[in-house]
């Protein structure tokens, strides 16, 4: 008997909007893995990392942006990194890998007054000369744990728990509404 | 009514008239007015009634220190009581009413209270209404509360919205008067990130009210030009209408920005924003507040602070009276007189308590040195003052200049105690102020303009250097050091009439005398005994005066009498602003399970479990009671197959060569030898041996485990494990990461669960031989979708838990229900889940409640003493393992028609309900459709030895007392044959 087919569904159904010059959209079908450095085998991990990414593992708050493989890497805690993007070819290179793709909802927010909106919920200092392009931080927004990543001059990506995706979206959307 | 007291000039926009309503009267002011200045311009000074005696009260100040002019602002649900008219920015359509009176303001029926004042001294209610005791709450207090007080809340939901936010800066400057602006100029040029906040809507502070020059131009012009320059700097953020409320640890300050309070409508935007400001350094430039002098009947409308009279004239173009007199003990009173004359205001007399030559002369102004005001007349408006030399002066406004108190409030927010300075007769900040805070200008006791600017300039340079900024060598702006000499004079002694110290709380010098007589000398006692310094103004104009009067009465210097300190907030904050967005359904984040949408389509009834919304039951058409739905779900599951979303259980991915050893340390029972492909139930203990949490952990690989925790403890368990990993077991190679949200997980339970699963799994043999009870594996379903399958059972049935990446969660529940149609597959919610776990005797938070041990739960044997694990040693304390401890049992009513009650206590038959006779308590109850009656779980002393005994379940709160039979907690399938089948 034919088995049923399962459909993939993003938590916010591909939400996208623009309010007062600030655009906000869900980044769908994102792939995230965490990789961890074995306690007793740092050298091998570092060697594998450099072979793969041509650089040493980045330390917070700096992230590493690569074109091949097409991904971004940033440190989420001591000896742990997230790789976001093209992760299929990476997984086998490391011992401790956990698929995090479905644990997060990802939003991209951009626009001229984006910092005015973010400062309503983000406790991090986002002054552009302090939180540089490529910087990221783990923080809380409206009681929800999240990661904020600056990808461009006026563009940020926000990652938060997928189960509270709607509340997170509401928090960000409200912030935009309140300042535009 | 025309604006009879309007002068020329002022910083108001006469091209923008504003129509407003006060007590039903339609009036007009201008943009740039406050409600107070507009009322004065219209000749209205009677604006309220006093707190206790219902005395007529007028506008007293021109700032946030205002004790008198409190009004109800706006209407209906938007009504806000106790709003200070002196800081309420006028807008077109403003609606205000006076408060705390019965009948019209002009004829307050409660004014008779004033006649009873001899009986209403400080603390009268404590002494008078002592008996009968029962009358206090029911009679006395309601009457007192109704007759005394401030404004009234609407009782309706606040229709406004509020927001919060976070700001960061190198330098926070609190106050945008001359010192604050001078500081901002230096910091802006140095390139520091600067925030300058001021509670006023027009920045410049005293510069807008006085007639000095800075750098050769009028001071107000200097202020506006400086502001314009600051606005050009990208590194300076100017926050008008923003009160810095509190100073907290690590350079954090709270500030309230009033975004739309100056508008009729907020247009859907937040009315106020509560900021948390992170600063490297802060400069307090909050200025000083003028004090009054306590003299008989000094509370009449028309008696005002002298600086306020000048502000109304210069800044707002309003004369506070037609014939103004000045009563002073210092030189600022004379400066104010000069400013008023220059502004075209008529001065009648200057009365100075000091016996010195007059500092100035004014044509047509009576000058009395070494003289005091000893009485006043005029019920609803000042008519005359009587002087100590016997003169009576007809005047409608008395400007009182009692000296200046630096606004030290924020320096006290971390218990800093100000120091007394005799030369200015005021408290100034001591060195014990918040770390990183510097104080400049009048707030630091530099009361002259030149000194204020100079200190701000120098201090800011030093502060910036301390955090690594290079500052340019510049000279501070030039300004004069005006005369400010003061000879303290606090109050006019008079036995006959009352002299007010605290206008807002109706505290007089007599009250202070009473406090002193009755032994309440300490400042803290004085405040609580008399209410001095309480309510919305927090004693800004009265604290120092009250303390000085007490010092005189005690015959001690002020520093020896005490020091008054302050706590946040600096000014009152609306509760809505503190709540911010956290209201209604946005009070807290909501977590939804992957099946939420589908469950909503089935009309599921949801319950909050932590932040999660879980389906509680799924009512079907025709079902009229939740029990019908739950019973059906239980029976259908036990008969065929039921499906429950268990995604909410915490999931922790554990990897590392020491993962097994780590789990062996975390759990009380052994985990070292769990085979790959197997699940084991685990029990965690606290360090003291009490149970912490339980769950199952699956070994997916040699170095890879997946733990499930209870829903409620998911975060706590993860945090606890992370602590153990980093601090207790740093030598272990183990890595943790939460995957709770990454997997959608469904329990599939019932005799047909295997058959249903077989329809969707790819190439996985589900037979008992290949995939037995407590097996687990990483599989695929539905042609290649990655999944995890666990053969575990919470219901006691043949059961599985199937997990797929969350993105497939919605689709999977739909597929399971579609494929399960041939088995009458039934979704079940948390209620049915609970019923089945009670039938089976599985414990949850009701039983693992922070007081129970493994032994209590019937799992004492699981706590291995052959290994080191958290809590293993202390779990063996004698008090926890003696024969008399409570044990988990099942309970059934002897009369099967009785319903059991959770929380009931157990007693022997015939024994009295006393603590000594208490045998234990009922933890969980349910109606079991499987057994057809109520069942329960509970703890009974030595209960494991008493199966079959009858005891009482006594519930004193609900008045129930029924006999129950002790049975095994495993009421359903006690041998476990079904779940292993």
UniProtKB/TrEMBL annotation, chain A:
Record-linked InterPro entries: SoxG, TrmE/GcvT-like
Superkingdom classification of source: Bacteria
Pfam families: SoxG (PF04268)
Record protein name field: Sarcosine oxidase subunit gamma
Gene3D superfamilies, A to Z: Probable tRNA modification gtpase trme, domain 1
Automatic annotation (TrEMBL), chain B:
Keyword Oxidoreductase: yes
InterPro entries according to UniProt: 2Fe-2S-bd_N, FAD/NAD-bd_sf, FAD/NAD-binding_dom, GcvT/YgfZ/DmdA, GcvT/YgfZ_C, GcvT_C, GCVT_N, Sarcosine_oxidase_asu
Residues of the FAD/NAD(P)-binding domain: 170-413
Keywords: Oxidoreductase
Protein name as annotated: Sarcosine oxidase subunit alpha
Domain Aminomethyltransferase C-terminal residue range list: 887-973
SoxA A3 domain residues: 496-579
Keyword RNA-binding: no
Residues annotated as domain GCVT N-terminal: 596-867
Family: Belongs to the GcvT family.
GO molecular function: sarcosine oxidase activity
Pfam family, one: GCV_T
GO biological process terms, semicolon-separated: tetrahydrofolate metabolic process
């Amino acid at each position: 008997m034919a088995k049923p087919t399962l459909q993939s569904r993003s938590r916010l159904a591909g939400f996208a909007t623009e309010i007062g010059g600030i655009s906000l959209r869900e980044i769908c079908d994102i792939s995230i893995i965490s990789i961890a450095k074995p306690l007793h085998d740092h050298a091998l991990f570092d060697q594998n990392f450099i072979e793969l990414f041509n650089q040493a593992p980045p330390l917070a708050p700096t992230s590493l942006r690569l074109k091949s493989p097409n991904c971004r890497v940033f440190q989420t805690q001591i000896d742990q990194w997230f790789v976001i993007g093209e992760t299929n070819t990476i997984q086998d290179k490391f011992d401790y890998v956990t698929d995090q793709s479905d644990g997060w909802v990802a939003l991209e927010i951009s626009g001229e007054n984006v910092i005015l909106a973010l400062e309503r919920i983000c406790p991090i200092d986002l002054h552009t000369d302090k939180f540089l392009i490529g910087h990221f931080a783990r923080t809380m927004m409206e009681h929800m744990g999240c990661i904020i990543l600056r990808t461009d001059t006026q563009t940020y990506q926000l990652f938060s728990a997928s189960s509270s995706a709607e509340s997170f979206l509401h928090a960000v959307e409200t912030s935009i509404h309140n300042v535009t | 009514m025309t604006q009879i007291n309007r002068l020329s000039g002022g910083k108001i926009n006469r091209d923008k008239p504003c129509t407003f309503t006060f007590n039903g009267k339609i009036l007009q002011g201008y943009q740039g007015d406050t409600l107070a200045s507009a009322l004065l311009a219209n000749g209205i000074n009677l604006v309220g009634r006093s707190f206790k005696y219902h005395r007529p009260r007028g506008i007293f100040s021109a700032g946030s220190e205002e004790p008198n002019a409190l009004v109800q602002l706006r209407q209906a649900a938007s009504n806000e009581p106790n709003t200070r008219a002196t800081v309420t920015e006028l807008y077109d359509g403003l609606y205000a009413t006076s408060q705390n009176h019965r009948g019209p303001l002009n004829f307050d029926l409660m004014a008779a209270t004033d006649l009873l004042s001899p009986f209403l001294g400080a603390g009268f209610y404590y002494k008078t209404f002592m008996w009968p005791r029962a009358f206090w709450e029911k009679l006395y207090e309601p009457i007192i509360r109704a007759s005394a007080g401030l404004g009234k809340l609407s009782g309706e939901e606040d229709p406004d919205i509020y927001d919060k936010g976070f700001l960061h800066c190198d330098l926070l400057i609190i106050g945008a008067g001359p010192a604050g602006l001078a500081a901002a100029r230096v910091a802006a040029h140095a390139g520091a990130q600067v925030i300058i906040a001021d509670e006023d809507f027009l920045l410049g502070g005293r510069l807008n009210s006085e007639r000095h020059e800075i750098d050769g131009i009028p001071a107000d012009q200097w202020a506006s030009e400086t502001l314009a320059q600051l606005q050009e700097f990208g590194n300076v953020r100017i926050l008008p209408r923003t009160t810095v409320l509190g100073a907290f640890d690590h350079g954090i300050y709270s500030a309230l920005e009033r975004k739309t309070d100056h508008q009729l409508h907020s247009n859907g935007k937040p009315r106020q924003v509560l900021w948390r400001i992170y600063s490297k350094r802060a400069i307090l430039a909050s200025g000083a507040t003028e004090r009054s002098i306590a003299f008989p009947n000094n509370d009449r409308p028309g008696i005002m602070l002298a600086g306020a009279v000048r502000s109304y004239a210069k800044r707002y173009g309003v004369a506070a009276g037609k014939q103004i007199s000045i009563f002073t003990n210092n030189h600022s009173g004379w400066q104010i007189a000069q400013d008023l004359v220059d502004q075209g205001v008529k001065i009648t007399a200057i009365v100075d308590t000091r016996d010195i030559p007059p500092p100035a002369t004014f044509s047509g102004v009576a000058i009395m040195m070494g003289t005091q005001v000893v009485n006043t007349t005029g019920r609803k408006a000042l008519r005359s003052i009587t002087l100590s030399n016997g003169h009576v002066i007809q005047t409608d406004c008395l400007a009182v200049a009692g000296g200046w108190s630096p606004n030290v409030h924020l320096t006290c927010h971390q218990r800093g105690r100000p120091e007394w300075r005799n030369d200015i007769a005021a408290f100034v900040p001591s060195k014990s102020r918040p770390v990183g805070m510097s104080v400049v200008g009048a707030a630091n006791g530099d009361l002259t303009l030149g000194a204020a600017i100079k200190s701000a300039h120098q201090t800011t340079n030093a502060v910036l250097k301390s955090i690594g900024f290079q500052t340019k060598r510049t000279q501070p702006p030039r300004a004069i050091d005006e005369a400010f000499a003061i000879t303290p004079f606090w109050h006019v002694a008079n036995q006959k009439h009352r002299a007010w110290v605290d206008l807002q709380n109706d505290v007089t010098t007599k009250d202070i005398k009473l406090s002193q007589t009755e032994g309440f000398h300490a400042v803290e006692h004085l405040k609580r005994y008399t209410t001095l310094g309480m309510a919305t103004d927090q004693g800004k104009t009265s604290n120092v005066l009250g303390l000085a009067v007490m010092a005189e009465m005690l015959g001690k210097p002020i520093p020896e009498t005490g020091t008054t300190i302050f706590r946040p907030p600096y000014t009152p904050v609306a509760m809505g602003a503190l709540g911010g967005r956290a209201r209604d359904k946005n009070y807290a984040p909501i977590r939804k399970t992957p099946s939420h949408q589908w469950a909503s389509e089935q009309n599921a009834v949801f319950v909050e479990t932590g932040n999660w919304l879980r389906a509680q039951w799924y009512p079907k058409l025709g079902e009229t009671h939740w029990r019908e739905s739950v019973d059906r779900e239980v029976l259908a599951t036990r008969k065929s197959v039921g499906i429950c979303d268990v995604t909410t259980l915490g999931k922790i991915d554990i990897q590392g060569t020491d993962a097994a050893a780590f789990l062996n340390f975390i759990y009380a029972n052994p985990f070292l030898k769990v085979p790959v492909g197997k699940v084991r139930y685990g029990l965690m203990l606290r360090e003291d041996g009490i149970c912490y949490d339980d769950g199952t952990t699956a070994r997916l690989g040699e170095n890879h485990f997946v733990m499930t925790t209870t829903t409620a403890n998911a975060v706590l368990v993860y945090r606890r494990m992370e602590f153990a990993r980093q601090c207790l077991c740093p030598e272990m190679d183990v890595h943790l990461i939460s995957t709770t949200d990454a997997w959608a997980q469904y329990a599939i339970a019932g005799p047909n669960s295997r058959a249903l699963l077989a329809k969707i799994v790819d190439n996985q043999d589900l037979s008992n031989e290949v995939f037995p009870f407590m097996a687990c594996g990483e599989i695929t379903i539905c042609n290649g979708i990655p999944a995890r399958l666990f053969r575990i059972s919470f219901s006691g049935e043949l059961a599985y838990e199937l997990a797929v990446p969350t993105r497939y969660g919605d689709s999977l529940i739909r597929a399971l229900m579609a494929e399960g149609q041939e088995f009458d597959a039934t979704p079940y919610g948390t209620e049915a889940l609970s019923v089945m776990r009670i039938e089976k005797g599985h414990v949850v938070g009701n039983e693992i409640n922070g007081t129970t041990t493994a032994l209590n739960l019937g799992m004492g044997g699981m706590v291995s003493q052959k290994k080191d694990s958290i809590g293993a040693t202390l779990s063996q304390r004698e008090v926890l393992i003696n024969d008399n401890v409570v044990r988990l049992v099942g309970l059934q009513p002897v009369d099967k028609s009785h319903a059991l009650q959770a929380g009931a206590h157990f007693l022997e038959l015939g024994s009295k309900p006393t603590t000594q006779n208490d045998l234990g308590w009922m933890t969980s109850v349910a109606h079991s459709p499987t057994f057809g009656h109520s069942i329960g779980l509970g703890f009974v002393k030595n209960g494991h030895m008493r199966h079959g005994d009858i005891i009482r379940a006594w519930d004193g709160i609900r008045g129930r007392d029924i006999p129950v039979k002790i049975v095994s907690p495993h009421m359903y399938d006690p041998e476990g044959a079904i779940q292993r089948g």
